[in-house]
């Protein structure tokens, strides 16, 4: 199983609800790069950290016209520029994130504490230089949707045995509890793996609270995956 898929592949849906849909462009890749299309309060569709795929435009069109494409992590440019050009919209990057905009071959718009008219509040998850990591999260109160691009995930290498949602392996010693534990979301959408929609708030709080105590199991599982 490759770490990152390439070429042409058929996407697989991983999340679907009245206000959006998620997909894996390369279902068999190890990284499980997840993308989401969410209907904003403006009635348009916002694409979060998207990876392009065959038939994707038809999937997104079920929810309306694209309002914008969002990059939530400094290394999640993915296919943001390609999709923005195709839908004639801008790529949205947080106003405090550095370098990211320079690598995007499409119009870029900056945002602060609100993501345009989407209804999503934006907040800093991490902004550090060692290791380099700039991540912005999003919360849409009207739908109870929390988007966390990288700090938590459901891909196997994020989770210790028994966890439905896990903290990124590099962040387990010092999980971003302060910034994330204030949310009580109905769903958590992540950048790697399927989202959590069943008792999502409990899954999020458990992941943060147990990040350190479950660290040995998480690292052991990740090592086993690397060696298998």
TrEMBL record:
Q: List, alphabetically, the Gene3D superfamilies matched.
A: Ribonuclease Z/Hydroxyacylglutathione hydrolase-like
Instruction: Show the SUPFAM superfamilies listed in the entry.
Output: Metallo-hydrolase/oxidoreductase
InterPro entries in UniProt: RibonucZ/Hydroxyglut_hydro
Q: What is this protein called?
A: Glyoxylase, beta-lactamase superfamily II
Taxonomic source organism: Halogeometricum rufum
């Amino acid at each position: 199983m490759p770490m990152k898929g390439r070429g042409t592949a058929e996407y697989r849906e991983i999340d679907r609800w009245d206000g959006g849909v998620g997909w894996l462009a390369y279902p068999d890749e190890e990284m499980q790069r997840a993308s989401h299309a969410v209907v904003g309060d403006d009635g348009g569709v916002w694409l979060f950290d998207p990876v392009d795929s065959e038939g994707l435009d038809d999937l997104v069109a079920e929810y309306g016209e694209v309002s914008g494409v969002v990059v939530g992590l400094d290394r999640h440019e993915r296919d943001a520029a390609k999709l923005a050009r195709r839908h004639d919209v801008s790529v949205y990057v947080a106003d405090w994130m550095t370098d990211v905009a320079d690598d995007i071959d499409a119009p870029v718009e900056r945002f602060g504490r609100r993501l345009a008219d989407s209804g999503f509040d934006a907040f800093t998850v991490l902004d550090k230089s060692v290791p380099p990591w700039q991540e912005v999260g999003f919360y849409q109160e009207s739908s109870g949707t929390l988007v966390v691009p990288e700090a938590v995930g459901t891909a196997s290498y994020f989770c210790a045995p028994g966890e439905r949602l896990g903290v990124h392996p590099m962040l387990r010693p010092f999980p971003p509890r302060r910034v994330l534990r204030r949310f009580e979301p109905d769903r958590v959408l992540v950048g790697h793996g399927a989202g959590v929609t069943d008792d999502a708030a409990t899954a999020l709080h458990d992941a943060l609270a147990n990040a350190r105590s479950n660290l040995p199991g998480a690292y052991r599982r990740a090592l086993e995956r690397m060696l298998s």
